[in-house]
């Protein structure tokens, strides 16, 4: 009886922790999408076209796919890499705005301190999705919106 109760409690605690991680990952990823759109907006305003925006988009799209596969840790890592690229773009165009997208105190514990390559999501995007990003006109606001860059649940 006690053993069953302990198992039920452990399962419940694990489920609660996993739900919290999912919510945290969702918020982190959605903020990354906002950074991408802000970088694009500032680039349009300054009449710049930087190919690294496509890299940020690719990593953000990978983060969304990983999230949907319940790989929250990897999704956060990809979204963070995407956000760093967006921040770098913003710093080149509008230094004041870039600081807003730096990870918050609440987000800091989510970020992996490991200097690892982002290989977990190498095959997350299909060849069609990768091709769509490669051919993307980053100056076209509507085309970027066609790529899934946030979690809508």
From the alpha-carbon coordinates, what is the Rg to the nearest angstrom? Answer: 18 Å
β-sheet strand percentage: under 5%
Low-confidence parts: 8-18
Helix content: 55-70%
End-to-end distance: 38 Å
Q: What's the helix-strand series? A: HHHHHH
Structurally, how many domains make up the residues? 1
Please give the oligomerization state of what you see.
single chain
What does this structure look like?
The protein is mostly helical. It is 65% helix and 0% strand. It is built from 6 helices and no strands. Helix 1 packs parallel to helix 3.
Secondary-structure topology with pairs:
Elements: H1 2-45, H2 52-68, H3 72-93, H4 95-98, H5 127-134, H6 141-145
Helix pairs in contact: 1-2, 1-3, 2-3
Keywords:
globular; mainly alpha; single chain
Compact summary:
By secondary structure, the protein is mainly alpha-helical.
């Amino acid at each position: 009886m006690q053993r069953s109760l302990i198992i039920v409690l452990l399962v419940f605690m694990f489920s609660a922790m996993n739900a919290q991680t999912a919510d945290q990952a969702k918020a982190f990823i959605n903020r990354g999408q906002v950074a991408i759109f802000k970088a694009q907006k500032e680039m349009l305003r300054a009449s710049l076209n930087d190919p690294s925006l496509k890299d940020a988009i690719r990593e953000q799209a990978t983060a969304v796919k990983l999230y949907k596969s319940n790989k929250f840790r990897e999704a956060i890592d990809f979204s963070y890499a995407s956000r760093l690229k967006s921040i770098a773009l913003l710093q080149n165009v509008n230094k004041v705005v870039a600081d807003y997208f730096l990870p918050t105190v609440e987000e800091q514990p989510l970020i992996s301190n490991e200097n690892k390559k982002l290989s977990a999501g190498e095959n997350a995007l299909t060849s069609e999705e990768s091709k769509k990003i490669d051919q993307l006109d980053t100056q076209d606001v509507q085309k970027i919106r066609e790529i899934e860059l946030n979690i809508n649940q």
